[in-house]
Structure formats: structure tokens, C-alpha cells
Amino acid sequence: MKVYLLTSNKYTATICPINIHFLNKNWPNLDVTIVGYEDVLKLDDLPANTNVACLGNQADYGATWTDALIPFFNTVPEEYFTLIFDDHILLNEVDTDSVKIIEEQFLLKKVDKAMIGGGIDLNNSTKFADDLLVFNQDADYRLSLHPAIWTKEYFLRYLKPGQTSWQFEVENDAKFDDAVIVNLNYDYPNEPHVYSYLELYTKGVMTIDRDGHTLTNQPSSCFFDKKDIQYIWNKVRNPEGIKERVHEVFGFGSHGVRGTEFSKAFEKSKS
Predict the structure, then answer these.
(1) 213 occurs within a structural domain
(2) Cα dihedral: 53, 4, 239, 42 (round 10)
(3) What is the extent of the structural domain holding 245?
(4) 228 lies in a domain?
(5) Contact by Cβ (8 Å): 33, 3
(6) pLDDT tens-place string over residues 211-239
């Protein structure tokens, strides 16, 4: 399976290596490309199954998300692929038999998208095939950017110039577009998604603590191992990581802050 991991300079250095670590732990034998901006060229010691694609300098694209992706995805060779974001970290072992059930539908060209990490209400669906549901045409968030497998054609159909990722999801009207969007048939949250992931940041704030707890409402967290969450915490919260997160979360410039202002921010970043 081809996986494109989408990132920005904000999280490339700190989060992408963590994401790759858990991808290879929980879904081995993938072909992964980290798609980002100039900072992806600084990543080193990546595993053999992982490479990078640089879209250019992030500053050249301003706040838009789609403008850099359109020319890139027009050139990818795959007819379908998995899309994930840098801070959506896979924390359950993927059932590869389930993935094969889904992937068979792509090989038969019967589907346009498959949700594997939630994002669309399972109650707004009907039976598609054995073990599979198809979302109804009036379902909300049909373009959800939760972990999913997309055909190249369907992703590019809605990848319009000048949009942020939020605009891509909510401003494009994908209702009644006749696209076939499927999901495995299971009882969530009593059963896990194929791709049960930790959303590591919400509005720029980390969602876990040092003791391995999630601090936001993430139903999939019941399937997480606290040791994995603590591993992530420790990887992010090293001294350099703390300094960078203070700058990111509190909006300080590249020259940093001084005195009590930094001390207060530093202590808050550890909470």
C-alpha cells in the first residue's frame, strides 16, 4: 500500500519521525512518502521504506493547502493511495486482512474512497458488500481528511486552488456526487477503526500528558497502550522540543522571549 503522509514545517522535524515509527510498528511493509515543504529535506535516518517529496518553500504558498498539492498529485503514478496527516499517529495494529477486503474494491474500480480512521457517521450508511458499508449520498463530511484511502481521480476532483485543508473538507460540496465511499462494517467505538489514531494536537495544543493519558475526547483512546503515549510524550518533550513548542504554541518569534515571560511559558508548556 502506498501512503502519503502530509506535513508542514511546523511538525516535520518533531512529529514525522514519530509517525513513521508507529506506522512501521503497526502497519509494516508500506511504501511511505512524506510530502511537505523545505524542512522535509532535513529529515535523516529514515527507514528504507520511507522517502520525502518537497513541494517547495512553504512561505510561497501562504495559508493555502491545495496549491502545492495539486501539481504533485497530478504526477503520482498510483491510481489509489492512503492519505494521513503528520499528527494523526497510528496506535493500533492494523488488520491487514481487513485492508485486503477494502483494497480489492479499489482494484476492481468499484469505489472512490474508503474511510479507515473514522470521520463520517457510520449510521448514515447501507450495506455495500460482505463486511463493507457504503455511505449515503447525503452524508456529511464525505471529504473528511481523517485517514482514508482515495483514488487519485477523486482526490484531485476536489483539490481546488486556493483552499486550506479546512475549506477542502467543508466548503466543497460532495453530497450526491455519486462517489462510492465505503467503510468496514464494525461496531465503533466498541470495536476499533482499521486505523485507530491519536490526534496529537488540537488547535496547536498537545492532547496527551506524561502519564499516558489523552486529554481530549478521543473514543479510540480505549485501544491505545499508555506506554506508546508516554513514548510520544518523551520524544516531543525533550529540551529542544519544549523550546520549539513554546515558540509554536505561544507565538513567540525566532528571537525567543526573556526572563519571567519565558519561565511562565516554559512551565505552561510542560503541563
Answers:
(1) no
(2) -10
(3) 238-271
(4) no
(5) yes
(6) 999 999 999 999 999 999 999 999 998 74
